[in-house]
Each structure stands twice: as C-alpha cells, then as structure tokens.
Amino acid sequence: MRTAYKIIAHLISLAVVVQAAVVAWSMFEAISLLSRGIMLDGPPFAAMLHGNIGMYVVPVLAIALVVIALFAHAGLKWALLTLLAVVVQIGLAFAAFGAPWVGMLHGINAFAILALAEVAAYSVAHAPVRVPARRNVARPAM
User: Fold this and answer.
1) What pTM value is reported for the model?
2) Is residue 130 part of a domain?
3) Residue-wise pLDDT tens for the chain (142 aa)?
4) N or C, which terminus of the chain has less Cβ within 10 Å?
C-alpha cells in the first residue's frame, strides 16, 4: 500500500506539471492567434484540457491518496493537506473567472499542491513500518 501511496502522490505532482505545461500552451496559442488578427470564439483546446485535468484527474488522485493513506496507516496528514489544497485550487479557479487577479493565487497554489504531494511521498517512503506487537493480556483465573 505504501508503494501505491507513493505512486499516487507522484502522479499528483506530474499532473500539476502537465497542468502548467498545458496552460502555457493555451496562453501562447491565444497570443499567437490574436497577434495574427484571429479572434478567439472560445477557449483554446489546451485551456479545456487544463480544466478537465484540474477538475477530474487531480481531485480523483487526491481522493485516492486519502483512501490509500487510510489503508496504509501512513501519510494521512499529508494526504488530507494535499486534498485540501486541491479543493482550494478548484475554488480559486472558479473565483478567477469573476476576478482574474485570483488566477495568480491559483498559480501559486499549484506549487503548494506539488510540494504537498512530494512531501507526502517522502513521508511515507521514510516512515517506520509499524508491525502491531502481540500484547500479553492477563486473563482472569478460573
């Protein structure tokens, strides 16, 4: 279970990097089209890809990380913090449509998600393995 936890945590980090790449692609595509005088009639494909990964893939991975942490008996604190950062990220994304400056906070929070996911992977990789010891229990005399 710890290996699955580490893999999911690293996948969250990878998804954040992919998100950054596709949002950059989206912006450069929009700038390129506008500089050639082509008006956009909707969001570029890369922007839609960014939204879909952020709304579906990353939250599912974050929830999976929490579930696996419960079964692995390790890393629950970091999994929950990662999930919280993902929830905040989605909230910031929706808020940014009404107040574009919030988009800066959305970008900064992406780094927090990346850091939390990597700390989660590190914490489980270096956590001591606990094996429950059998306890001797005094039994009443018969």
Assistant:
1) 0.85
2) no
3) 889 999 999 999 999 999 999 999 999 999 999 999 998 888 889 999 999 999 999 999 999 999 999 998 889 999 999 999 999 999 999 999 999 999 999 999 999 999 999 999 999 888 777 656 666 666 676 6
4) C
**Residue 140 forms part of a structural domain:** no
Yes or no: say if 63 and 11 are a contact pair by the CB < 8 Å rule: no
Q: Do the domain assignments include residue 67?
A: yes
Domain count, the chain: 1
Whether 134 is covered by a domain: the verdict is: no
d(CA 107, CA 130): 38
b/e map of 85-124 (b: 16 or more CB within 10 Å)?
bbeebeebbeebeeeeebeebbeebbebbbebbbbbbebb
- Max CA pair span of the chain: 94
